[in-house]
Design a protein that fits this description.
By secondary structure, the chain is α/β, with parallel strands linked by helices. The chain contains 15 helices and 15 strands. The chain is 38% helix and 15% strand.
Length: 482
């Protein structure tokens, strides 16, 4: 065999053992002592088999080294020296079945959250004086259902998420849409899974009863204790919303037992007590799942996260991930959804050319029925991929897939975390750089560090309670919407 060299990988340790995260296959493998020695020797430069045997003399037998070389070559952790090849650009075959449709039934809201990406200083679409209607009509909603069922292809279940603005401001159309979608899906031999996102201000008893009876999944945008919630999540007159939403949320959680209710928390420069917020939402309220997301905004906003903010968030996430790991090893539930979702991707070996399903298996529909990359771009002509009446513009979709492929993001080409990150959120890139094709370089260090934390958590769970990971052997879940 010719000289051997390392291929793309990231080495980490967990449960007292060395592991490799292989790029670009996104596989996680544990190393025995001989294989680890081979990898460490090759880290100093290319070596021949004879070199490796000489260096291993007295430590490992010839058979052990040959076995290690064979296994490492097979998994493409090492291999013969070869010219560096550009990343292949393999586009998905279109049409890709639509897994999740996000229906923006209104672009209006009864809160005035300072950091809101729809109504704040960084908004894309004019929701006050623009051409989009403020509320979706039932006619447009029905057309959207027909669009969803057609675009879902052979899939037996379609996922429909209601969104806003504040979704429940158009509760009448939401109810009519669910009834219509159920009827049409049954006629086609399909099912529809329904969910919505709400700020909880309009969770009246009749609304809660409807959501419970119709098994609608609910995610609540809620930032935590009063001093946190009332800082940014305020009504138009500046009044905080905590005292209004808290009893409504508790009533929903008490009655909605058929599906887990999740909380979605926006983190800002002045709101980074992740563990404290998590405890408040799970222990005080009883949320089953809590997910955190840094605010999407221009770097010049006072509430934007800077480098120190990301470091603090990482420390908090890491501490909560340790709690998650211990719970998983002991077979207990833990609701920190950020680590769970990343572990699911790691377990399923997801190596992504695109950061999410936007524009592929997930699309957002505006109040007028325009189809966009996702709900965050609903109503934007620049990010339009068709209409629910005329269908997906395949030329526009192909152009999107071509221009946004990971292979185009040269900054990502040498990053070991690219199979998980793939450059990051399009909306974040648009807000930060004015271009959805750009990689989100401002949080690269954060992504790499967080991915390593999740890899270590995953490996320790695999070592100590591998049965827990069996829940991820199923088909991937529908896209998360936030």
């Amino acid at each position: 065999m010719t000289h051997l060299a390392l291929r793309e990988h990231h080495r980490f340790e967990a449960a007292g053992k060395p592991y490799l995260f292989l790029v670009p296959s996104a596989a996680v493998v544990g190393l025995d002592a001989a294989s680890d020695m081979v990898m460490q020797v090759l880290a100093s430069g290319e070596k021949s088999r004879a070199d490796l045997l000489t260096l291993a003399d007295g430590l490992f037998s010839e058979d052990e080294i040959d076995g290690a070389i064979h296994d490492l070559v097979a998994m493409r952790a090492i291999g013969p020296i070869e010219p560096q090849q550009p990343m292949p650009k393999i586009l998905p075959l279109t049409p890709v079945p639509l897994g999740t449709m996000v229906l923006n039934v209104t672009n209006q809201c009864n809160l005035a959250c300072t950091y809101c990406y729809e109504y704040g200083e960084d908004k894309i679409v004019d929701t006050d004086n623009g051409k989009q209607p403020k509320f979706m009509s039932i006619e447009t909603a029905k057309q959207s259902v027909e669009f969803m069922l057609k675009e879902s292809g052979e899939a037996k279940t379609a996922h429909l998420t209601f969104f806003g603005g504040e979704t429940l401001l158009n509760f009448k159309v939401l109810k009519e849409t669910i009834a219509y979608a159920r009827q049409r899906a049954a006629e086609l031999g399909k099912d529809v899974d329904f969910s919505l996102t709400t700020n909880a201000t309009l969770l009246k008893p009749d609304v809660i009863e409807y959501l419970v009876q119709n098994q609608v999944g609910v995610t609540i945008s809620f930032d935590g204790p009063p001093e946190v919630q009332n800082k940014f999540r305020v009504f138009h007159n500046g009044t905080g919303s905590y005292d209004i939403v808290a009893p409504k949320i508790k009533e929903l959680l008490q009655k909605h037992r058929r599906r887990p209710v999740g909380a979605r928390v926006t983190l800002t420069s002045g709101n980074l007590d992740v563990k404290g917020i998590y405890r408040h939402l799970t222990e005080e309220f009883g949320f089953r799942e809590v997910g955190f997301a840094p605010v999407t905004t221009s770097a010049k906003r006072t509430y934007a996260l800077d480098e120190q903010g990301y470091d603090h968030m990482l420390a908090q996430f890491t501490a909560l991930a340790e709690d998650f790991k211990e719970a998983a090893i002991e077979g207990r539930h833990h609701g920190f959804s950020n680590v769970k979702e990343t572990i699911q991707e790691i377990h399923q070996g997801m190596s992504k050319a695109y950061p999410c399903g936007a524009g592929i298996g997930l699309m957002g529909v505006s109040t007028a029925g325009d189809v966009a990359l996702c709900h965050r771009f609903a109503g934007s002509d620049t990010h339009k991929l068709g209409t629910v009446r005329d269908g997906v513009d395949r030329a526009a979709q192909t152009a999107f897939l071509e221009s946004h492929h990971l292979a185009n993001k040269t900054d990502c080409s040498t990053c070991w975390a690219r199979p998980v990150c793939s450059g990051g959120c399009y909306h974040e890139a648009h807000t930060r750089y004015g271009d959805t094709t750009k990689a989100n370089l401002h949080y690269c260090d954060w992504i790499r560090s967080w991915t390593e934390v999740c890899l270590k958590v995953y490996a320790e769970i695999a070592e100590k309670n591998s049965a827990w990971l069996a829940q991820f052997d199923r088909e991937p879940a529908a896209e998360k919407v936030s």
